[in-house]
Amino acid sequence: xxxxRVLFGLAMAIVAIAVxxxxxxxxxxVWLSSSPNLRWSVxxxxxxxxxxDMDPAFQVAIYENxxxxxxxxxxxxxxxxxxxxxxGDVSDLLILKTTVQKYSAGSETKRAVTTxxxxxxxxxxxxxxxxxxxxxxxxxxxxxxxxxxxxxxATHNLARNVAKxxxxxxxxAPSSATxxxxxxx
Amino acid sequence: MSYIASKWSRGLAxxxxxxxxxxxxxxxxxTTAVSQNPTEPAKSVSARTxxxxxxxxxxxxxxxxxxxxxxxxLFQRDGKPVQQVKIASVHxxxxxxxxxxxxxxxxxxxxxxAPFGGGRVISLFSHKKYDTLTLExxxxxxxxxxxxxxxxxxxxxxxxxxxxxxxxxxxxxNESAKKSTGVSNEN
Lengths: 185, 187
Prior knowledge:
Radius of gyration of chain B: 26 Å
Order of helices and strands of chain A: HEHEEHEEH
CATH topology of the largest domain in chain A: Rossmann fold
CATH superfamily of the largest domain in chain B: Pleckstrin-homology domain (PH domain)/Phosphotyrosine-binding domain (PTB)
Number of domains of chain B: 2
Number of strands of chain B: 7
Shape of chain B: globular
Strand order of the largest sheet of chain A: 2-1-3-4-5
CATH architecture of the largest domain in chain A: 3-Layer(aba) Sandwich
Number of strands of chain A: 5
Structural class of chain A: alpha/beta
CATH topology of the largest domain in chain B: PH-domain like
Number of helices of chain A: 4
Strand content of chain B: 25-35%
Oligomer: heterodimer
Distance between the termini of chain A: 55 Å
Strand content of chain A: 15-25%
């Protein structure tokens, strides 16, 4: 009789756990199954040309393509732009700084005529920094156009490479408590 | 004789007075023209353009009409809703020059298919210079956006002038603006 009671109690406990567990675990699963980078939001800053003489159209194109590619690949929970007032309210925010290291303005005509000459090449240093300025990730990334396409295509390739480099790397867990997806804005 | 001299001197005095009045009027007109209020609404400027990227929700490489109407910069594709940005929100504007191959994909395929390297010869002549108009503007949330338009040669400068005139743009200092205009640039 006593054994039965113990067994009944165990069964009830198992049922209670089974009933209560799925809701918690489903929430966790959604959170854990996604990329760890998805816990972060990112703010993309304008491109810093440093001392490289780069056409402003390229700087703007890199910036816009970065915002586009990072949003497209779902690398981050949110992608914010430079100057966005909302960035102050976002927890777990990383700041993406892009500094141009090398730039060679190519020529579509040279490429079309010679095939081997006239490539547009851009090399940038990208840094993901925390709010306090600590560098979380640093990569040097290239973007080129060697054969077909306009010169601005190099900025698209560059942004795609930056997004890939970030996607492949594992970022540290955010310091703040992990919010549930329902709490996203 | 003295009558003629007095007549002559009177005529000369009259002419001098008229000249003075005319000179004063001309000087006043020119001063007024120079000191026009820079905040007055922009002239209506419009041009066919290719939107390369970034302007609101317009798709990349979309052809349409870029225009300045009142206090707004508008881009409209044929039969599509107008995308617009307040000129006051535009922070920077740059003009540069680019050289592109014309003819699009069809031409490119044709050049590849041409025998004996004929395509390369065609490429030598099938290029055209364009102006690139680059804008930086902020949305209502303060977030920075960039947009790049491709216009026929000479048209971008008109837009730049109008935008700068009508919005006190934080244009780059003359030196860097000249630099961006002067970059050789085949983009």
